[in-house]
Amino acid sequence: MAGTRTRQAHGNETREFILATAERLFAEHGVAAVSNRQISEAAGQANNFAVGYHFGTKADLVLAIVRRHAPALEQRRAAMLAAIADSTDLRDWIACLVRPPTEHLESLGSPSWYARFIAQATTDPVLRKVVIDETVASPSMQATIAGLTRLMPILPAEVREERSDMSRQLIVHVCAERERALHEGTPTPRATWKAAEVGLLDALLGLWQAPFTSTD
Amino acid sequence: MAGTRTRQAHGNETREFILATAERLFAEHGVAAVSNRQISEAAGQANNFAVGYHFGTKADLVLAIVRRHAPALEQRRAAMLAAIADSTDLRDWIACLVRPPTEHLESLGSPSWYARFIAQATTDPVLRKVVIDETVASPSMQATIAGLTRLMPILPAEVREERSDMSRQLIVHVCAERERALHEGTPTPRATWKAAEVGLLDALLGLWQAPFTSTD
Known about the structure:
The structure is a homodimer. In chain A, 75% of the residues lie in helices and 0% in strands. The first copy, chain A, is mostly helical. In chain A, helix 4 (58-84) crosses helix 5, helix 4 (58-84) runs parallel beside helix 7 and helix 5 packs antiparallel against helix 10 (193-209). The first copy, chain A, is elongated, with a radius of gyration of 19 Å.
């Protein structure tokens, strides 16, 4: 029994190390540019098929990295939703989009790779849909989208969809560019993750409240 | 003389075909994922070093693709700037950011690759700075940024910088996701490039006019 537990513990450590290595390599080079073999080698696996053995296809591996962070994000967003209850302040609901990733990134410290990994994965022609669908499908994200929809009944469906896409794009790429700048030691518009969160909140509040021109 | 001209014409055609092939491959797979050798092969060059021979390094090749589109964008933006003169309507100045790329993409027809190429190039860890600097440095872009700065004197420098970055990120990724959806035949929030332009204009106007929270 002890032997089984030890082997399982080793297996879990190996899986964790492969996931961390893959996240870094994908963040640095893009999802399509990195092979399972390169990840196995960078993770110090003697067997070049280690990634395939532990995770299956590249889509499975990318989803496993997404799911490595999902519980932390889900927990933060669920707590925020419970706290705002049925708030009618749009800023509260937009904060449920913005703060979970910015606080998660702050908690990871620098260098983190998660923001750049998400930027690469959501720009990948093959895997972007899998990653976006997985993220949007979480219970707390569904509740946040429902809250935004309740507060914005005036927006036609296509404008709401468009502004949802824009919110995702802004959050993903602002965080990715900030994470890279912190890592490379280049200047950032805002000094801290908290300040970057405030900047995103201000901007997205303006974006969601902007008058719209119908183009039907 | 006629022979020289023909050889030059052939050389130009080869260069053009290599550029178009590289743009498509970078857009599909990411800049880091595609080697000069793969581009040479896909462009039907018997010599695997054709890309290096014609363009030098990958950074040179990426810049050559950017510069293939730059005159068309520059011409549209310069004409818009001349037409709005010293307008004090913020929407006019934001239109100078948005309309040149959306009209250019419309003129390319589908499938185009330019929007996805720019999204990939500006997400690439190595080449992103080269591409962003090249784009921002154009005379019409400098005049547009100066116009926005004149109209937004109330914004602290870091908020203006942050919102400039956000404008770029939104325009790049909205256009890239729309270009991909058109190519793949999947739904888009707006029916036409003109309508997508209007959606971006509305959203960016709200973003730039949003009240800001100082975090100094």
